[in-house]
Amino acid sequence: MQYLSTRGQVQPVQSAQAIKQGIAPDGGLFVPESFVNLSQDKLRQLVDCDYQELASEILGGYLTDYTAEEIKDCITGAYNSDSFNHSDIAPVHSINDDLHVLELWHGPTCAFKDMALQLLPHLMSLAVSKTGEKNQVVILVATSGDTGKAALEGFKDVSGTSIIVFFPEDGVSQVQKLQMLTQQGGNVSVVAVKGNFDDAQNGVKQVFADAEFNKELQQRHYRLSSANSINWGRLVPQIVYYFSSYLKLVKEDQLSIGKPVNFVVPTGNFGNILAGYYAKQMGLPINRLICAANPNNVLTDFINTGVYNRSRDLLKTISPSMDILISSNLERLLFELTGRDTAKVRSWMGELKGQGRYEVDSAVKEKVQAYFWSDYATDEQTLNTIKQVWDEHHYLMDTHTAVAWHVYQNYQQQTGDNNKTIIASTASPFKFNASVAKAVLGSDKTAGEDEFQLLDMLSQRTGWEIPVGLKNLDKMQVLHNKKAPANGIGRAVDEILK
To answer: What is the pTM (predicted TM-score) of this model?
Structure first.
């Protein structure tokens, strides 16, 4: 399996090279030359597989320059009882016959990013050796909150690599911030950016695009790579849980092979829901991918109008992992929906960079709307949904999952679609406990309490256990205190590597 750039100006590469580089030299994103196909007969054969076996099957089709044994070892190293607190890895909780929640937060950092970032370091280490890389691979990460900690945890003390994470100083929860600032490991660095997530992401992209700086780094025996979802090694593991959740319902006789389902995905950078699109292209019977946004609803506007316009204020919300206006992975979708027209992709990405907006043609807009439906939830609607679901179902959700639930309700009301639906739950409710506690306990009981007191209050009220990864964070030593202006990310990288 070869990998192409969405911008079409570099030669195809093998998967190890794509994973090691992270982003293509022409600024595009690596995509597989074709999709692995899983027929309905093949899906039937996979029903009794556990998560690790299913992951081996799917990854084996895409990572053809890795041996079956290497892939199995990577998967065993990533998805095990030391890292995940549930034997299903990504369990499905059924609310009723028609609605199910795919819990993607049972890993070490309590967020869905663990599903990929426990695996990527294993793939990266092998990629370095497979490609004969002699330089140290430096992983640069821009995070809106969850990717940073998950990447730090995955790459800490991985030989041949170091990792630098940039996060918006005032754009993450206190829990998220302390998860990063207390991160141990001899090869990790964390930098608070005086700006928002898009500032951090743009700064990291500029570092990758700076040919002179990259040449200088190579002379110093460093090579840059990424652990953001622009890296194919981050995206391909996410395809697995779309299949695992579907097959779980089949195994429990709640679904028959071939019957379509909807997936609702809280979406910021478009990587998670794009993995669902890839699963559909591979043969998973998905009816509609429902893109759930918060008030930073640039994706909702795009799906509904065909116009992508980032020229608006980035709002700070209670679902901060979705406080994003530049959804990088949308480029991969446009590549596919244009029939892999790299000239169009380059043109639109150029317009986005230069003018802050682009508009796709009517044919692409129709295809987008055939696959996707989108709406958004305000902060008030998010809080009301958390309370409603707790009161009615005794099910506790974080703010991002609540956005998805609210949008699902809107979808049902507006379409009348009665297909079974799976909501992707992307974080533990305790990770955003200030908002969750306010919704469940009431603002009168939570006012003035810090996030760590609220952890205990929420646990006592609901009977849900605080995840190990979030306990006693406030008592751990802060190990990282670097800060950088939005235009100083390259300088920060240079100083850290010196």
So the answer is: 0.95
Of 191, 230, 180, which Cα lies nearest the Cα of 5? 230
Does the annotation mark 471 as catalytic? no
Q: Would you list the DSSP string of 42-59?
A: HHHHHTT--HHHHHHHHH
Q: Which of 42, 72, 113, 365 is catalytic?
A: 113
Give the residue ranges of the chain where pLDDT is below 70. Answer: none
Q: Backbone phi, then psi, for 376, in 5-degree steps?
A: -140, 165
Question: Which amino acid would we find at residue 103?
Answer: E
Angle between helices 271-281 and 330-337 (to 10 degrees): 30
Contact 146, 113 (CB under 8 A): yes
Four-residue CA torsion sign, 244, 248, 249, 251 = positive
- What are the strands, taking DSSP E only, across 6-146? 13-14, 30-32, 92-94, 99-103, 136-142
Q: Classify domain 92-103+240-430 at the CATH topology level.
A: Rossmann fold (3.40.50)
Q: Please name which of 325, 192, 191, 351 lies closest in space to residue 268, comparing C-alpha atoms.
A: 325
Residue from 32, 79, 34 nearest 55 by CA: 79
Q: From CA 229, how far away is CA 237, in angstroms rounded?
A: 11
What ranges do the domains of the chain cover?
92-103+240-430
